[in-house]
Amino acid sequence: MAGLVAEKKNVVVIGSGVAGSLVAKSLQNEAAVFLIDEKEYFEITWASLRSMVEPEFAKRSVISYSEYLPHAKIVTSTAVNITDTDVFTAQGSRIR
Ligand SMILES: Cc1cc2nc3c(=O)[nH]c(=O)nc-3n(C[C@H](O)[C@H](O)[C@H](O)COP(=O)(O)OP(=O)(O)OC[C@H]3O[C@@H](n4cnc5c(N)ncnc54)[C@H](O)[C@@H]3O)c2cc1C
């Protein structure tokens, strides 16, 4: 009954801070999620001060996207333009 399977909508999330990461994680099984950020990892920002005085701790304050976003498409770039239908990145990608 393939004809009854609804096509997943594209959802573009800009920014992989705690807000964007939570949205992407929550929707990754319901939609085709694209997460755009120049950073290649999630950073626990509130741990950065401790990392400055305890560099070993910094390793524990970054998390790979693959650990929590196995079904999202990661776009490592900066979003530079947004229209009603598209997001354009500094790398030249266009996500619809
Ligand atoms: C040292 C420190 C201590 C803190 N302590 C606390 C605390 O104790 N309690 C508390 O509640 N809060 C604390 N905060 C604040 C908390 O970290 C922030 O409120 C929270 O991280 C905001 O999350 P966010 O996802 O909204 O934004 P951010 O974490 O700022 O994430 C935004 C993301 O968007 C990306 N981005 C921006 N523009 C673009 C673009 N054009 N294209 C693609 N990507 C883009 C950035 O690279 C970034 O990854 C602290 C912050 C710091 C720095």
UniProtKB/TrEMBL annotation:
Q: Which GO terms describe its molecular function?
A: electron-transferring-flavoprotein dehydrogenase activity; flavin adenine dinucleotide binding
SUPFAM superfamilies reported for this sequence: FAD/NAD(P)-binding domain
User: Mind naming one GO cellular-component term on file for this protein?
Assistant: cytoplasm
Please name the InterPro entries in this protein's record: FAD/NAD-bd_sf (IPR036188)
Which domain of life does the UniProt lineage start with? Eukaryota
Identify the keywords attached in UniProt to this record, alphabetized.
FAD, Flavoprotein, Oxidoreductase
Descriptive protein name: FAD/NAD(P)-binding domain-containing protein
Source organism: Capsicum baccatum
